[in-house]
Design brief:
Order of helices and strands: EEEEEEEE
Oligomer: single chain
Shape: globular
Largest sheet: 4 strands, mixed
Mean pLDDT: 92
Helix content: under 10%
Number of strands: 8
Strand order of the largest sheet: 4-1-7-8
Low-confidence stretches: none
Length: 94
């Protein structure tokens, strides 16, 4: 499962600081969108990659880095890259 988050008004467009919780029957994994840091200005990949193991789908919770701490929840299938736009939902990236 891959997620590309895009922030809306009140959130930076790259969604740096967003928290993503991915829950399957077997486990829960957490990712935070990190823009990069360090002495050489390393850039982290903004696409969040999450392995689902034997599960075919996951419950995804996105906590956006806006003043309200907006939370959105989705059930997404494995094996795809999704573009998730704050307040608009998701689409599959071809």
């Amino acid at each position: 499962l891959q997620l590309q988050l895009i922030g809306a008004d009140g959130t930076n467009r790259a969604a740096v600081g967003a928290r993503v919780d991915v829950k399957t029957a077997e486990t829960t994994q957490t990712r935070t969108v990190d823009g990069g840091h360090g002495q050489w200005g390393n850039q982290e990949d903004l696409i969040q990659h999450v392995g689902l193991g034997p599960s075919c789908e996951a419950e995804v919770t996105v906590t956006w880095p806006d003043a309200e701490g907006t939370v959105e929840r989705y059930t997404l299938g494995g094996g795809y890259r999704y573009r998730v736009v704050q307040g608009e939902g998701w689409t599959v990236v071809e």
